[in-house]
Design goal:
The protein is built from five helices and eight strands, in the order ββαβββαβββααα. Strands 5-4-3-6-7-1-2-8 form an eight-stranded mixed β-sheet. Helix 1 packs antiparallel against helix 5. With about 200 residues, it is of the alpha+beta class. The chain has two domains: about 140 residues, Structural Genomics Hypothetical 15.5 Kd Protein In mrcA-pckA Intergenic Region, Chain A (Roll), CATH 3.10.290.30; about 40 residues, no CATH class. Strand 6 and strand 7 form a beta hairpin. It starts with a strand and ends in an 11-residue tail after the last helix.
Length: about 200
């Protein structure tokens, strides 16, 4: 890969022990595609609105719904963030209010073993389930799941799909999902000769 690569760390704020990921993206990635990558590396399902805050500017998919918002698909990450250790905020789900901090750890990342332009290198702990009720709801959810005798244990186990392990992290599975995303989002121009 000849393109300049960024090494990023994202962490979900206000949760201990920390839920985080370290991943690589091209510097030329647009903010809407960075949102897609964040959704995959963190384990979210892209079911809610989001916004990036860089400096004093906010970037979102629907700027008309956010006062002073800018359309994220029109901006490339590398044009907005260049300094090592620069931190930006990423808010996902305005109701539950999942605030993340993204930091640029390296602006000229290189690893000859890197096979894809977006890859998850490391991380810790599982992402909270969608619609769990933000941080307070997540802590309640984890407390109930840890207590098989709790009256809501079975209901929440079923609600979460029958399995939830807050310590689970699988970089291989995340990279598989990133590879599928890259395959399906690539340019597909093919001249079939139908216009002749």
């Amino acid at each position: 890969m000849s393109e300049r690569m960024y090494l990023l760390k994202i962490r979900l704020l206000d949760i201990e022990p920390e839920i985080w990921r370290r991943f690589v993206v091209p510097a030329s990635i647009t903010l809407d595609r960075l949102h897609d990558a964040v959704q995959i590396v963190m384990g979210w399902t892209d079911s809610h609105l989001h916004e990036f805050t860089i400096g004093k500017k906010r970037y979102t998919e629907y700027p008309q719904e956010r006062e002073d918002g800018l359309e994220c698909g029109k901006y490339r990450f590398g044009d907005l963030v260049k300094q090592k250790n620069r931190k930006i905020l990423y808010l996902y789900d305005f109701g539950d209010g999942w605030m993340h901090e993204l930091s640029l750890e390296e602006s000229h990342y290189f690893d000859p073993r890197l096979q894809n332009e977006i890859a998850c290198l490391d991380g810790a702990r599982a992402c909270p389930p969608e619609d769990v009720g933000g941080i307070p709801g997540y802590f309640d959810f984890c407390t109930v799941l840890a207590d098989p005798g709790h009256e809501d244990h079975e209901r929440l186990m079923e609600w979460s799909g029958g399995h939830y392990d807050s310590e689970e992290f699988d970089a291989d599975m995340i990279n598989w999902e990133l590879m599928k995303y890259l395959r399906w989002s690539r340019d597909r121009y093919k001249d079939w000769g139908w216009n002749q």
